[in-house]
Specification:
By secondary structure, the protein is an alpha+beta fold. 42% of the residues lie in helices and 10% in strands. The strands form two sheets. Strands 1-2-3-4 form a four-stranded antiparallel beta sheet. A three-stranded antiparallel beta sheet has the order 5-6-7. A hairpin with a 4-residue loop joins strand 5 and strand 6. The termini are far apart.
């Protein structure tokens, strides 16, 4: 059995399938593991009756001498009665994912996106040991995702960087974070929002939407700028329609956020049917469920309105853009949208609700009158033309109402 040298590691061919080992003649347990696609230095020892194997590093990233030095240190520790951390237990990426989702994700606003990344792009990593995941793995993932979704690729690396930092703190992982130093793809910030000539078409399409709850949810998004999940999870207990306020509980981090409701929206919400035993405003499937997947409803609406590139989140951006174009202050807009900003105006965020309510009322009138162009419909109501009733805009005949977002 030869000594495992750099030259021998270079000359050893890959195997067509499975794995093979080239073991060192001088240091028991030190070996080169060869597969169809890679070569790695490993160290093996029997710990408490069970054989443990740890990957020291990939050949090319680590030389034979460097790997031997690390294996020698581990062997010395074992001879002195100390079991190296990397040999105690093989902690997997799946274990880290479970801990992350249980202890860290619930306090993040991006928890839903994190779950999607882990489910869609990293599910195949669950069985891998943490120390086997290398910077090369992350760079490969980043490059592959970046070809079609650079923003998603960057978020995946940022997520992995955070998870490995947590693993270091939790004692699950030792060494350098493999996500450190990976250069992000350039990102072009999305600026899409509904323009003055597009908003009327959206209002017209909303009139034809057969799902009354989806229709009302989209109107709520347009007239308040609230986040999609906040809107869909709205509960009657969080609304005070007499005072025209909505208390948005920040269950995913941050304090509760109060939004004064424009009078146009109050009338719409007051006429929504309630379901006994269901606390949610926008009812979905199940006895106590709320709307979850509104993509199909939005696809119908934007197709009829000929704005097929507008996403649901763009409704929030539309709200902010209309406020900004109307001359409202940035600090007021930031407060209404509940932005977290380190700007110097953040200290003045505790504004009274009355100025915000007036701004939202003015904005709703502009969006409904200037964007909706409803005109003659108001003549049928007691409502002043300057105070339109959106129920005439956004209510469809009962026969068309179906709850199938």
């Amino acid at each position: 059995m030869p000594s495992l040298t750099q030259s021998l590691a270079e000359k050893t061919p890959h195997v067509p399938s499975g794995q093979a080992f080239v073991r060192d003649s001088e240091l028991p347990g030190f070996a080169l593991r060869v597969t169809k696609a890679s070569k790695s230095f490993v160290f093996e020892r029997r710990i408490h009756g069970r054989m443990r194997r740890v990957t020291l590093g990939r050949f090319g990233m680590l030389t034979a001498d460097q790997a031997r030095e690390e294996a020698s240190r581990m062997a010395a520790d074992i001879s002195q009665g100390t079991v190296p951390e990397r040999l105690r237990k093989r902690r997997t990426f799946g274990e880290l994912v479970d801990l992350y989702l249980e202890h860290h994700a619930p306090v993040k606003r991006s928890a839903r996106n994190d779950r999607a990344v882990l489910r869609n792009h990293l599910i195949g990593w669950r069985a891998r040991a943490l120390f086997e995941i290398t910077r090369q793995d992350l760079e490969r993932l980043h490059a592959e995702l970046g070809r079609t979704a650079p923003y998603q690729a960057n978020r995946a690396v940022a997520l992995l960087r955070k998870m490995f930092n947590l693993a270091l703190g939790w004692g699950m992982f030792v060494g350098e974070n493999p996500a450190t130093g990976i250069r992000f793809h350039p990102e072009e910030k999305r600026q899409r929002y509904l323009l003055p000539d597009e908003l009327p078409r959206v209002f017209e399409a909303l009139k034809e939407e057969r799902n009354e709850y989806a229709r009302a949810a989209f109107v709520t998004s347009i007239l308040t700028g609230a986040r999609r999940q906040e809107v869909l999870e709205m509960k009657w207990e969080d609304l005070n329609l007499d005072r025209a306020v909505w208390r948005v509980p920040q269950a995913i981090g941050g304090p509760a956020h109060t939004i004064p409701l424009p009078s146009q929206l109050v009338g719409l919400l007051q006429q929504l049917p309630k379901a006994e035993g269901n606390p949610h405003v926008f009812i979905g499937e199940g006895a106590k469920g709320h709307l979850v997947n509104v993509k199909r409803a939005w696809q119908r609406i934007r197709a009829k309105a000929a704005v097929t590139d507008v996403r649901i989140h763009d409704l929030r951006r539309t709200f902010g853009a209309w406020l900004a174009a109307s001359g409202e202050s940035l600090s007021l807009i930031g407060q209404v949208l509940n932005h977290r900003s380190p700007s110097t105006t953040a200290g003045y965020a505790l504004l009274k609700l009355d100025p915000i309510r007036e701004a939202l009322d003015r904005n709703a009138r502009r969006m409904v009158l200037g964007g909706g162009k409803i005109g003659p419909a108001f003549a049928k109501t007691k409502t002043s033309p300057l105070e339109p009733n959106p129920m005439l805009i956004l209510t469809t005949p009962e026969s068309k109402m179906k709850k199938d977002a």
